[in-house]
Every structure is written in structure tokens, then in C-alpha cells.
Amino acid sequence: MTWFRKRKYTVLKPTEKKRVDIPDGLWHKCQQCLHILLARDYEKNLWVCPKCNFHDRVSGWDRIGITFDPESFIADEDILDPTDPLEFFDTMNYMDRLVSYQKKTGLKDAVITGIAKCGGYKVVAGVMEFNFAGGSMGSVVGEKITRAFERSLKERLPIVIICASGGARMQEGILSLMQMAKTSMAIARLNEAKIPYITVLTHPTTAGVMASYASLGDVIIAEPNALIGFAGPRVIQQTINQILPKGFQRSEFVRDHGFIDIVTNRKDLRNTMINLLSFFAPWAREKEEVSSQSQ
Ligand SMILES: [Zn+2]
Q1: What's the CA-to-centroid distance between 34 and ligand 1, angstroms?
Q2: 58-294 has which fold?
Q3: Which of 52, 91, 123, 269 could form a disulfide with 33 if both were Cys (CB 3.0 to 4.6 A apart)?
Q4: pLDDT single digits (tens) 244-289
């Protein structure tokens, strides 16, 4: 008997590596938790990571598609063109920048307005396009938003604005800042007429937009962990020379301090809006039913 036996080693054959070509855009990697999933599944999940609940940015038209009733959105005619009164130049001309954004998004400026239905409730709608100059508010955005408020007042329809913006567009100087006053005045008139205004704050909603129409909704809804605030946390930290609390300027923090009413996951946003409309604007549905019956 041998005390030691020679071990038999099995030589593992290296597995044949087959090169699989994956077409671009087939997979999506979550920028927060790095989870990888099929782009198709990501889209089905409304651009929200199923693992960490990261709510990714959504383009204006996709947002319209997931928020309002199918094929109910009728966009306003895009007749307002942005101008360059300051002949602004940084690393390139402002007008050239505008042209590149217009080519990229197919829009003349950073907001889409129109009329839509949400769960059968007729609403005036405005959806900001972050891909156009960071959703910044220049004179065209301010004017289109104001006209949407005026339409809401004239037709006595509730209004929903879905915000995504870095603030006022500095390339237009004072003209962009004036939009804050103009949009706020239009909301004051809606308020007097008791017409409900719902704002949805998505990541990010900051600065001049937050300091005007984004924060003036009768009901303010936000998506989870969206950056909501006026100046950025770094600027505040340097100004007050104090360390800011955890979660500062995120939707949940802002809600807990009384500035936002509801934080809701994107998949529940539409139902939340329908519930609110049924409570605050039941006539918007009745009106529609009556008019469709009479046709
Ligand atoms: Zn994730």
C-alpha cells in the first residue's frame, strides 16, 4: 500500500472563446450602480434602473409618450424663434449653438407645449427638453410657458408642466431673467381664477426655473433623488462655509422640509396625476365627455 498516491489531474481544455458582436445601443449600463441590462428592457422600465431605482433623464417627446394618453398630445405650432440680442460669444456663437441644439432635438427651443389628455382629463401641457441647452429658460421658453398658462386660463383647463432645467439662459442676459417675472405673473392670474396647476420636477430642476414657475404649482410632484434647488450645493457650501446635510437639495430632502408635496416613482407618476386631476379638476373630464357626446 502506498501512502501517497499520485493525484490525477484533469487538464482543462480552454473553452473556445467565441467572439460575439453586440450591436451598439443594445445594452444599457446604469450610471449609478453600473448594472447592465438590455436597452429594450430599460426603455420598458421607463428609463429607470430596476436595481437601484436611478431615474434617468427622459427626452421631451418620450416624456409625453409615457405621461399622457396615447396620441392625445397636440403640440402648439412651433412659431417662436430664439434670437441673440447680446450677440453672445463664449467658445462659439450663441446662434451657432442654438442651431446645433435645434438639429439635435428637432425643436426650436427647450420646451414643448400643447394640449393633451391624462386619464381622460383634458390638460394644457408643457414639457421641458433638457437636451436643448440643459433645458435652460430663454425668452422663447418663457413666452411659450406663459402662453400655455394663458391658454389654460382662457379655456379653463388645468395645466401640467414637467420641468427639467438648469435655470435661466445666461446667453440671453436680462431677457431670460425677465421670464421669471412674466411666468410668475401668468400663474398669479391662474391662481385668482382657481385653475389647478401641477408641476412635476425631474432631475435636475434648478435656478431661475425653480425660482419661478417650477415652484409655484398648486401641487408639486418630484421624481426620486432629483436635484431640486436654486444655487448648486458647492456654491452654497462655499458661501456659508458649512458642511451641508446628507441628501441636501434632493427631492426627498426638499419634501421633508415642506417644499414638495409628493415624491413618486416614474411608473406611478401618471396615476398620481390622474388622481390629482380627478380631485382638483373633475370638470376637465366632464367637459370632454359632454363635447364628445354632442359631436
Ligand atoms: Zn442602477
Answers
A1: 6
A2: 2-enoyl-CoA Hydratase; Chain A, domain 1 (3.90.226)
A3: 52
A4: 888 889 999 999 999 999 999 999 999 999 999 999 999 888 654 5
